[in-house]
Amino acid sequence: MRTEINKLGEFGLIERIAANFPLQKKTSKKGIADDAAVIKIEEDKQLLVSTDMLVEGIHFDLSYTPLKHLGYKAVSVNVSDIAAMNGIPHQITVSLALSNRFSVEAVDEFYEGVKFACEDYGIDLVGGDTTSSPKGLVISITALGQASPKKIVYRNTAKKGDVLCVTGDLGAAFVGLQILEREKRVFIDAPEAQPKLDNLEHVMERQLKPKARMDIIYELEEHGILPTSMMDISDGLASEIHHICRQSNVGAMMYEKNIPIDEQTAVTAAEELKLSPLTCALNGGEDYELLFTIKQEDLQKIEKIVDVHLIGYIHEAEKGVKVVMNSEQLMDIKAQGWKHFEENE
Amino acid sequence: MRTEINKLGEFGLIERIAANFPLQKKTSKKGIADDAAVIKIEEDKQLLVSTDMLVEGIHFDLSYTPLKHLGYKAVSVNVSDIAAMNGIPHQITVSLALSNRFSVEAVDEFYEGVKFACEDYGIDLVGGDTTSSPKGLVISITALGQASPKKIVYRNTAKKGDVLCVTGDLGAAFVGLQILEREKRVFIDAPEAQPKLDNLEHVMERQLKPKARMDIIYELEEHGILPTSMMDISDGLASEIHHICRQSNVGAMMYEKNIPIDEQTAVTAAEELKLSPLTCALNGGEDYELLFTIKQEDLQKIEKIVDVHLIGYIHEAEKGVKVVMNSEQLMDIKAQGWKHFEENE
């Protein structure tokens, strides 16, 4: 079934969306239906605000991305930024620009994913804007979080001697993307071919439906650990470690053997894609894991958190940003990250 | 001169923008340069959040819209929503998706307009996202304001007997748009023709560089008036009065003779465009004036505010939403407003 959006109109569409998102949070005083949402800030807390834009043809390809997963991912990307400040997300706003290729049912599917994410992260949808676009889909999400000022963790406060930690595993989302792009090319050449996606659940899920690591934020709190600096890994470990080092005026030493790479990621990268798993972990994007530093005195505490890996330490800025390879060679880390502007030349 | 954006890269572009926007507000604790901005909420205040998306080819046409004005307008549109809640704007985030048609100089021009608006409204740019798009320009702005919960004014609280007020004058932005569209068609047919824009400053400015009515918000406070309901007029008076009436479960009676229409708007509509000035005032969009209701006991106070016009009163829902015409006929007001989704069929 396909219902044209102009059948509902902008106001009809907004009401349809709002009906599926009753407010749950005590801090959400007014959601959709007025000129602005009204949010209560908890006592002694400050507000955290982060915003991201996702553009069809640049950040996602709807030929292999289910809209429901895209809705989930768009929320995760923003919640991940609130997590990276050691904050608790409370609300999001979601704006869409849609071409007439998209039906009401497509919008419903997208918001189904948004709703799953809101439930997973315990947040409310409190506003947004829905408009048409001459071409494609553009998603703009703003996430609002709260944190006590003493517990907000910035990027520019890493200190010499701190231990460098990373959550989960790296490179999987990038490997997932390469597989999906490969299967898309195969499909274009031979539409009758079956996609080869066996034993690729992990890399697929990490690309299509990533989770923000709020679990780690709650665990850090539970174990009484306040990181000395933190950010999320959206552009790849190499790029992010440079942000922390440059802004904190320090350098870092990492160990290849400690950089967490899932076995499926490593095997798929090396055997199917002929890529170095380490390169995928360093320069692949969209991991949405957390990169943070802790004081040495917190080492015993951090070891109680299962999914945190100690990958190195912070040293003087003059010593640069380096990795000790398994071969015992020392490699300089260059910042790379996504260069969306170049892809579009 | 034309510098390609990929010469700077995303991070270079962000740094270039951030350098022009030092934080001014006491409530802006951290702006651009971390995963999220950090905002302090003033004592006993709540947060107001509003977001709008502007899409090239739908909301603006760069063949006659200077980017600097567009930057200013994009901020105004969002500040207007904060004003409509009786709040004070503090911060904005600005996200852009840009095709490679746009140079660094074009981005600079847009942000020059954003900066003028930030200065006019006393707000800080604290974040955003900049990415490429396969086609055209998409702007997504989120505005953050603050207000004491007792002073926040909603749409759903108008009461029978309240006096209906509107600021400024209506229909000018719509008339300005029609003139610009006409001149564009003339130019396409005969590129050597000079545009006829004499004596059109007011309608041009209202279309290209509208101002949010923060001045009225400050004056209401100064005169001790708390509106009983309020919203901004972005989709036309007819559409907005229906929002207030439906959400408040009331009706409204308005008087044609009291609906403020600037002389330039009226003359241009009638003589050049062969349009009814009243229709432009009722159904034209993008006025960004304020529509609000006050208690009758505030009538003496409101008359001290120069640019506020009393256009009617609130009555029972059963009596509908009507205008007493100058001809003494009674006309039903239908909600109309922008229907962007239909324009895109």
Automatic annotation (TrEMBL), chains A, B:
Protein's UniProt name: Thiamine-monophosphate kinase
Chain sites annotated for binding ATP: Y111, G128, D129, R155, S234
MF-aspect GO terms: ATP binding; magnesium ion binding; thiamine-phosphate kinase activity
Binding site for Mg(2+) 4: D35, S50, D81
Keywords from the named record: ATP-binding, Kinase, Magnesium, Metal-binding, Nucleotide-binding, Thiamine biosynthesis, Transferase
Gene label: thiL
Keyword Kinase: yes
Positions of the PurM-like C-terminal domain: 159-315
Record Pfam families: AIRS, AIRS_C
Entry binding sites for Mg(2+) 2: D52, D81
Species this protein is from: Bernardetia litoralis (strain ATCC 23117 / DSM 6794 / NBRC 15988 / NCIMB 1366 / Fx l1 / Sio-4)
Regions crossing the membrane: none
Annotated substrate binding sites: H59, E286, W338
Enzyme class, first EC level, given as a word: transferase
Pathway it works in: Cofactor biosynthesis; thiamine diphosphate biosynthesis; thiamine diphosphate from thiamine phosphate: step 1/1
Misc note: Reaction mechanism of ThiL seems to utilize a direct, inline transfer of the gamma-phosphate of ATP to TMP rather than a phosphorylated enzyme intermediate.
Binding-site list for Mg(2+) 5: D235
UniProt-annotated binding residues for Mg(2+) 1: T51, D52, D129
